[in-house]
Specification:
Helix content: 25-40%
Radius of gyration: 20 Å
Number of helices: 13
Largest sheet: 5 strands, antiparallel
Strand order of the largest sheet: 4-5-8-6-7
Distance between the termini: 52 Å
Strand content: 15-25%
Mean pLDDT: 93
Low-confidence stretches: 327-342
């Protein structure tokens, strides 16, 4: 591991100034992703600015009935928070599906959203990777890409974003608050992460020296929300495909719906086409499948990952069907899967 400097920040402005002044500096929160990448030689910061002790650990209800979540809130604390469990169950379920208890106790809200891809070529410094070295190529396109993107990818990158939390936040219309040398700004979660296009090295719109300070959720919409994830094994693993949904259906008709996919793209994929197709229509399995198919019509699977398209469609239809038909809130289990009330 490359030697690096270390500073423990005492306040937000000092932390921002320290990183902004050094192009090799990085913020350090829980370190569950950054430190691993440093060990692999993928990340080589010259300075770590520790923000883990800054006062960014609150979860509070705001005046309009929404929720403000500090970027330093641990994943375990957020998943267990009474307001989150009661009003945003999809968020709690996504967090519980995302990692083991040990990792949830260390990982933070901000760090989870900023984690880098788990593409094996990105993590292997002996291989070319446009995300690490722009212009070097994307061997995943013809190599091992079973777990990688089927929609929104480019000739330069087919990586997927690994966060479960981000998918739930995308479906819930969350926004992130960034603070940097030029002040504070808010960005919709759906606009925060980028598709690769011809700049795959840029995962998000965050600028150097900007610190993600909080995530804001609007008041919960009527109806119910939930998260479902498909993975290769029952223990913790990244999603092959996942779905977060919030649905309000009355009299067999969809009144409002919010839907986002994970595991399919370089960012959480908000399913606007599917939502538009569903609102005002019947809350039936056939309608849910047609809407998901319309959303996924632009998918461009590679040689070995075409199975993700029907997998995502079936996940979406099953989850929406449960939300439409359930007559009691659906609890989450340890795998983050939705199960019916007995």
């Amino acid at each position: 591991m490359k030697p690096f400097g270390y500073v423990r920040a005492t306040d937000v402005d000092t932390a921002i100034a320290a990183v902004a002044a050094d192009p090799t500096a990085r913020f350090l929160g829980g370190g569950t992703n950054l430190v691993d990448l440093m060990k692999l030689g993928v990340e080589r910061p010259g300075l770590l600015v520790d923000v883990s002790r800054l006062p960014l650990t609150g979860v509070e209800q705001v005046a309009d009935g929404g929720l403000r979540i500090g970027a330093g809130v641990r994943n375990s604390d957020l998943a267990a928070h009474p307001l989150v469990r009661a009003r945003y169950p999809a968020l709690s379920q996504a967090l519980l599906a995302g990692a083991s208890g040990q990792l949830r106790n260390a990982a933070t809200t901000g760090g989870n959203l900023l984690q880098r891809t788990r593409c094996p070529y990105f993590q292997d410094v002996s291989k070319p990777c446009n995300k690490r070295h722009p212009g070097s190529g994307c061997p995943a396109r013809t190599g091992a890409h079973r777990d990688l993107a089927v929609i929104g990818h480019s000739a330069h990158c087919v990586a997927t974003h690994p966060s479960d939390l981000a998918v739930a936040l995308a479906a819930l219309d969350a926004r992130v608050v960034l603070r940097g040398p030029d002040g504070e700004r808010g960005v919709a979660l759906t606009d925060f992460h980028r598709l690769p296009a011809d700049l795959p090295e840029r995962d998000t719109v965050i600028g150097h020296g900007e610190l993600l300070t909080s995530v804001e959720l609007p008041p919960p919409v009527p109806g119910r929300s939930a998260y479902r994830k498909a993975r290769d094994r029952a223990s913790y693993a990244f999603a092959l495909a996942s779905v977060a949904a919030a649905l309000d259906a009355e009299g067999g008709v969809v009144r409002t719906v919010r839907l986002a996919f994970g595991g399919l793209a370089h960012k959480p994929w908000r399913a606007r086409i599917a939502e538009a197709a569903l609102v005002g229509g019947p809350a039936t399995d056939e309608a849910f499948r047609r809407a998901a198919d319309a959303e996924l019509a632009t998918a461009r699977p590679l040689r070995d990952n075409g199975f993700k398209v029907p997998l995502a469609r079936n996940l979406a239809a099953a989850l929406l069907g449960e939300l439409a038909g359930a007559d009691a809130p659906t609890p989450q289990d340890g795998a983050g899967q939705v199960r019916r009330q007995p």
